[in-house]
From TrEMBL:
Belongs to the PhoH family. GO terms for cellular component: cytosol. It comes from Microvirgula aerodenitrificans. SMART domains: PINc. GO terms for molecular function: ATP binding. This is PhoH family protein. The lineage of its organism: Bacteria, Pseudomonadati, Pseudomonadota, Betaproteobacteria, Neisseriales.
Length: 469
């Protein structure tokens, strides 16, 4: 049993970290503010067992071990008293790190086998709880069953929440805002409007302006429907510009027209040269990939703004893995790119004038400008004048998302597509997905835009299946 220290302040809790927390986020050591952390020896053993390999888990295990080495290596005091975290975390964490330095044995029910690592950690939590009665001892674990067992034993247990951008994804920024007719009464006392080419610009001032975000889409329906994008905000004054109507055939993008309001918003962002980063969220069949590819082909082949389209996605299988695949990088990625092929078929059919030969030539031209790349080889690359499309981005962690987006060089546009209700990566949730993370962090930046596509346009069968199944 560890010797009792002088009673700490009741406000500072003692968090016991499970191994999966460190392997999920190595910086979790510095995310507990004024509270103290306890690392059991079995956690270090498990970290050591997972450090080999090139997977994200192995990299995180090695990084966590490096952080611990720096903390322990630079400490000259009594390790039993705890290692201060404030210097290494630059003041973000003011608590201490306590390492298990002697055998700790807590009485567990006979039904829990002692040899299992999870149960050894539970035993330590129980012993600490008994040894420090005036202090709240909490187990932090990403393992749901571990938390259930802890609560069944009367111990406090929590998930690791620090990486969650939002508790409730219903609060996630949608990129659009419906305004009512009273909006103009409240914010139109000094209303100005002027013509800018084919578009109209408005300057509004009022109490609603501070709640707006740059590049947010405003709309209202009625006898005179109105759609506009926020282009500038200064205090209580905002500038709006009306949108281009991509639902009209004369403004078609590679033969594709917007079928609903959100698709029109998305095409306005995709076709705007000042927007460097676009995120599109939506259920299956809302048109995310089709709109992006149509805009990409127009910008690459017709307007020559980008030299080529690079498309990548996370290779997480929904069912059983089909094993190693032969061939080049593009050939290995081919089974994952069925969505790309399906959408190219639709886009190629829009060219009816050229006949079969014309379509075949167009298809070859399109394929020569679209490169399919694996995420595994993205580190260290820089893309110049490219359109980078990241499909199924909900399966990326925030760290992987940062690695990908920072590949963008001058003249490159990045588009992230995904559906946060279809996450296949273990330990990722709607709240901690890299896609949720970038939508929340990029909102309000002058060169980024986001739209949540709401209406499915695939087929009546797909729409009905999405509702009833």
């Amino acid at each position: 049993m560890p010797r009792k220290k002088s009673a700490p302040s009741s406000a500072a809790k003692l968090f016991v970290l499970d191994t999966n927390v460190l392997m999920h986020d190595p910086t979790s050591l510095f995310r507990f503010d004024e509270h103290d952390l306890f690392i059991p020896i079995i956690t270090l053993e498990e970290l050591d067992g997972h450090k080999k390999g090139m997977s994200e888990v192995a990299r995180n295990a090695r990084q966590a071990s490096r952080f611990l080495d720096e903390l322990v290596g630079g400490f000259t005091g009594d390790i039993d008293d705890g290692i201060p975290l404030s210097e290494k975390s630059q003041g973000a964490a003011t608590g201490k790190l306590v390492l298990q330095t002697q055998a700790i044995d807590g009485a567990l029910p006979a039904s829990l086998p002692v040899g299992k690592a999870d149960n050894q950690i539970l035993s330590i939590v129980m012993a600490l709880h008994t040894a420090q009665p005036g202090r709240e001892v909490v187990l932090v674990s990403k393992d749901i069953n571990m938390r259930i067992k802890a609560r069944a034993l009367g111990l406090a247990a929590e998930d690791y929440f620090n990486d969650k951008v939002l508790e409730d994804t219903d609060l996630l920024y949608t990129g659009t805002r419906e305004i009512d007719t009273a909006f103009w009464d409240r914010n139109g006392s000094r209303l100005e409007s002027w013509q800018d080419g084919n578009r109209t610009r408005y300057r509004v001032s009022g109490p609603d302006v501070p709640d707006l975000y740059l590049n947010e889409m405003l709309w209202h329906e009625g006898e005179q429907p109105f759609t506009a994008r926020v282009t500038d905000i200064a205090g209580k004054t905002a500038e709006l510009v009306t949108l281009r109507d991509f639902s009209h055939q004369k403004n078609n993008v590679w033969g594709i027209v917007a079928r609903n309001r959100e698709q029109n918003f998305a095409l306005n962002l995709l076709m705007d040269p000042d927007i460097d980063f676009v995120t599109l969220l939506g259920q299956a069949g809302t048109g995310k990939t089709l709109l992006t590819l149509a805009a990409g082909l127009t910008l690459t082949l017709e307007q020559k703004r980008y030299s080529e389209i690079i498309m990548t996605r996370v290779t997480v299988p929904v069912g059983e893995d089909i094993g190693f695949l032969p061939g080049t990088e593009e050939e290995k990625m081919a089974p994952w790119m069925g969505a790309l092929e399906d959408n190219l078929d639709v886009l190629n059919k829009s060219d009816d004038d050229g006949g079969d030969w014309g379509r075949a030539a167009t298809r070859d031209l399109i394929r020569s400008r679209i490169k399919v790349k694996s995420l595994n080889f993205m580190r260290g690359r820089t893309f110049l004048n490219k359109l980078l499309i990241i499909d199924e981005a909900q399966n990326l962690t925030p760290k992987q998302m940062k690695t990908l987006i920072t590949r963008a060089g001058p003249g490159t546009k990045v588009v992230c597509l995904g559906n946060i209700s279809q996450i296949d990566t273990p330990y990722l949730t709607e709240g901690s997905s890299g896609l949720t993370y970038v939508v929340d962090r990029f909102k309000g930046w002058a060169h980024s835009g986001h739209v949540t596509l709401a209406r499915g346009e695939r087929s009546r069968l797909a729409d009905h299946a999405g509702e009833v199944l």
